[in-house]
Amino acid sequence: MAAYIFRRLVQAFLILLGVSLVTFVLLYLVPADPARQIAGRSATAETVANIREQLGLNLPFHEQYLRYLGRLVQGDLGRSYLQKTEVSALIASRLPASLLLMAGAIVCELLLGLTMGMVAAVRRNTRIDQGLMVLSFVGVSAPQFVVGILLLYVFAVQFGWFPIGGYGTFAHLVLPSVTLGFLGAGWYSRMMRSSMLDVLRQDYIRTARAKGVTRLRVILRHALPNAILPIIAMIGIDIGLFMSGIVVVESVFGWPGIGQLTWQAIQRVDIPIIMGVTLVSACAIVLGNLLADLIAPLIDPRIKLR
Amino acid sequence: MLKRLLCSTAIAAALVLPAVTGSAAAQEFKQGGSMIVTYKDDVSTLDPAIGYDWQNWSMIKSLFDGLMDYEPGTTNLRPGLAESFEISEDGKTYTFHLRRGVKFHNGREMTAEDVKYSLDRVTNPETQSPGAGFFGSIKGFDAVSAGEAEGLEGVTVLDPYTIRFELVRPDATFLHVLALNFSFVVPKEAVEEYGQDFGKNPVGTGAFRLAEWTLGQRLVFQRNEDYWMEGLPYLDEIVFEVGQEPIVALLRLQRGEVDIPGDGIPPAKFLEVKNDPQYADLIIEGGQLHTGYVTMNTRMEPFDNKLVRQAVNMAINKDRIVRIINGRAVPANQPLPPTMPGYDPEFQGYPYDPEKAKELLAEAGFPDGFDTELFAVNTDPNPRIAQAIQQDLAAIGINAQIKTLAQANVIAAGGEPDQAPLIWSGGMAWIADFPDPSNFYGPILGCAGAVPGGWNWAWYCNEELDAMAAEADSITDPARAAEREQMWREIYVRIMEDAPWAPVFNEQRFTIRSPRIGGADALFVDPVHIPVAYDYVYSNDVQ
User: Fold this and answer.
1) B248–A30: do the CB atoms touch at under 8 Å?
2) CATH 3.90.76.10 fits B9-27+51-202, yes or no
3) What pLDDT is attached to residue B27?
4) Which residues of A touch B47 (CB under 8 A)?
5) What CATH number is attached to the domain comprising A178?
6) Are residues A125 and A188 in the same domain?
7) What are phi and psi of B68, to 5 degrees?
8) Count of domains in chain A?
9) A68 plus A212 within the same structural domain
10) A210 and A69 inside one domain
11) Are A132 and A54 found together in one domain?
């Protein structure tokens, strides 16, 4: 087990190194000159040259990259070109909001997805089943900015049940969480449905029913825990999906998380922020996958780590 | 041109009105109340030496002051932290007498030493100020900018309330430069305490002080009780909420949760809101110091031929482009916007005449047209405008391929001598730093800007006009201001003869406010403060 974790951590390190290199190369190739960007339109040529030198942008590529790595291992993500603030401070100030949103999304996708899947399985081949599966299909395919704006329009503007964007209270959390979780809910309802159908065919379910246990009790106590197992392991992988989703959802709802930070930084080519967020997201995805793999054998002893 | 006429009367009214609001208003309106302003993007920095986007520009103006300022709602200069000033005969020495008893937000009195420190700081290369270049006419600037001197030789503190500037050449724009944010006065001890984070912990002499900044969420400005202008500001508090999409901000305004959506009315909702009688009194329209134009690279074939450039000018249907953006602009025929001194209302420009344009092309040796590329920024509505231009050019035989890129990439292409034959300037167009005609020349039409990385994307360099511009800017005598303006007018008319640009339109500003916020209309379309002059608007709740 310890050896397994060690090996995975080494892999994770190599993946992160690769991510940093690829991102750095891509941003290096962007045909926009950061020094000119910082200097602004009224700057003289000397000002631009001076800024370039101070930031080390005049150095050859490998030196720039090594400098970046050198600072990175000391935990220094650099300063934003335009905001002049430490990137680590910017990310730290926004991370809690993103984590809260992701937690909300996980709750939503489980609640929605599992309920839909369970109902569909129990009511197999009925109108309800078909309706739910169409809904899950929509969930999987609808772009998040469309879902977000629709929800915003219907529930916040028309009905006024929720605030129109923003951050702070539980009411603010609902719509963005649903939007972000809706995609996953689509997947989960399908998986839950087939997993549940599998379980419902098992002998022990028939035995339980024959013993006179009520239908509802059979589903909740016997079928659900078994059907849910394969799904739990998927949550870790979802973090990767969320990382791309929050960029859209946070912008639509004015949610002050790192997705919004990323979107603003991309538009202004603020390279240190883009680098920092990419690395933090890569870390989250790698950790999420590792966690998913570690949890899997705990809930299903048939899975062995090697 | 009824619309133009209406527009210019509105501006004339705007220029007259604030004279009333500025001084008399101090007794007229009660202080108190608060206002909520929203923005899509984070506020980047509030350091006056660094901040250079339209969002932080006015916020900084409310936190700090400079020696010079503008009458609210106008482009008229007036003294700010200075009480009075004298200009020497030769126009090379300026002496300022400071107001007494002006206090920084930390309680210390502002003196001439602070003014000198602030200017030394902004010109010091280590500060990386995007505005350092504005101070080029001060004696000793070159030494500071090369890192050879600590302070500007030409700035001398005569006593705590008197400061003298010596210039290397007479500079008619110098007073405007002293009204720029880059010249605003900062206290040394606070800058040294916060270092690179001064922009997040600003300390100035302005009407408001920063009370709270929650990154990515909100900023709170609170009234500076010790502000040196009696009775100002009117509001007790301004809350800036960031990260709000313009469409969301508008919905919240309609619900009464927001007072000013800082990013304006989103294009998709524009007509609906503008035609709604409910908002008729709440939308204020005004001019901007902005021109949208197509640059033609005069060093690339075939745009090195004047006839081709003139043909392009005649090919573009500007009225149609204005319709495409729902009438949020007025057609332009010269580089300067109508609100700018030096604008020539008599000038007719090139008419829309595709037939004549074809003839010019044939005369230039391109009877069958040619292939070229049109660069544009990829944010709405710029690709649509580029398409309209493409169609207009196709009608005279010019086959332009559109290249829509991110803003930074278009700017980079324009700064190279052989990259972009045509650029539509929308989304990165020149908006004046200060209301003076020279600001539309040097960097974007003068020889100084026609360098790699420069902003003269037409790569137009007319040495005769450069000399004339230098002469005009050496006229510092206020009595000869009209003569100077006339010289500038002539420069721009002569530029249009060479036609390095095809001016397309001047964007209009539309600010929407909640009924809670009051003030003269000019304050909501202030040419220097965007979106509104924060210090002068008031709350109707407390009146």
Assistant:
1) no
2) yes
3) 54
4) 84
5) 1.10.3720.10
6) yes
7) -115, 160
8) 2
9) no
10) no
11) no
pLDDT at B359: 94
Tell me if A214 is assigned to some domain: yes
pLDDT at A75 over 90: no
Find out whether B372 and B422 touch, Cβ atoms under 8 Å. Answer: yes
What's the DSSP call for residue B167?
A: B
Please write the tens of the pLDDT for every residue from B517-540.
999 998 998 888 888 899 999 999
Q: For chain A, what percent of residues have pLDDT higher than 90?
A: 15
Per cent of chain B over pLDDT 90 is 62
Q: What is the pLDDT of residue A143?
A: 87
Cβ atoms B74, B15 nearer than 8 A: yes
Confidence at residue A5, expressed as pLDDT on a 0 to 100 scale: 85
Q: Are residues A102 and A162 in the same domain?
A: yes
The confidence band for B407, taking pLDDT boundaries of 50, 70 and 90, is: confident
Q: Which two tokens stand for residue B202?
A: 């600003």
In a domain, A289, yes or no: no
Domain end position, chosen among A15, A40, A73:
A73
Residues whose CB is less than 8 angstroms from the CB of residue B477 and which lie 6 or more positions away in sequence, other chains included:
B91
Helix (H) or strand (E) holding B422: strand B422-424
Q: Which residues of B498-518 are buried (b: 16+ CB within 10 A; e: fewer)?
A: bbbbbbbbbbbbbbbbbebbb
**Interface test mutation site (partner B, options A30, A41, A248, max chain B beta carbons within 10 A):** A41
Residues of B in contact with A81 (CB under 8 A): none
d(CA A166, CA A173): 9
pLDDT digits 0-9 by tens, B228-277: 998 889 999 999 999 888 888 998 898 899 999 998 888 888 888 988 99
Nearest partner of B380 among B422, B427, B420, B425, judged by Cα: B427
Is residue A62 located within the same domain as residue A195?
Answer: no
Question: In A, which residues are within 8 Å of B50 by CB distance?
Answer: 84
Determine how many CB atoms are found less than 10 A away from the CB of residue B5.
9
Give the pLDDT mean for A133-162: 87
The residue ranking higher by pLDDT, B153 or A5, is B153
- Residue of chain B minimizing CA distance to A89: B215
Q: Do B248 and A93 touch (CB under 8 A)?
A: no
Residues 87-106 of chain A whose Cβ lies under 8 A from any Cβ of chain B: 89-90, 93-94, 97
Band the pLDDT of A305: cuts 50, 70, 90.
Answer: low
Chain-chain contact of A85 with B200 (C-beta, under 8 angstroms) = yes
Cα separations in angstroms, A6 against A11, A75, A279, B207:
9, 22, 20, 59
- Inspect the interface and report whether the beta carbons of B50 and A84 lie closer than 8 Å: yes
Cβ separation B406–A269 shorter than 8 A: yes
Confidence of residue B11 (pLDDT cuts 50, 70, 90): very low
ipTM at complex level: 0.79
Three-state SS for A215? helix
Contact B314, B353 (CB under 8 A): yes
Distance (Å, whole) CA B318 – CA B324: 10
The first and second tokens of residue A71, run together, are 């600072």
- Whether B446 and B456 have beta carbons less than 8 Å apart is answered as yes
| Distance separating alpha carbons of residues B334 and B312, to the nearest angstrom | 14
Would you list the domain boundaries of chain B?
Answer: 9-27+51-202, 290-507
Question: Taking a contact as any Cβ pair under 8 Å apart, which residues of chain A between 231 and 290 contact chain B?
Answer: 250-257, 260-261, 264, 267-269
Question: In the CATH scheme, what is the homologous superfamily, with its name and number, of domain B290-507?
Answer: Dipeptide-binding Protein; Domain 3 (3.10.105.10)
Phi, psi of B311 (to 5 degrees): -60, -45
Angstrom distance (rounded) from CA A223 to CA A202:
9
Q: Which residues of A touch B144 (CB under 8 A)?
A: none
Residues A245-267 have pLDDT tens digits of 888 898 888 888 999 899 888 88
Structural domain harbouring A10: 2-73
Q: Are B419 and B382 in contact (CB under 8 A)?
A: no
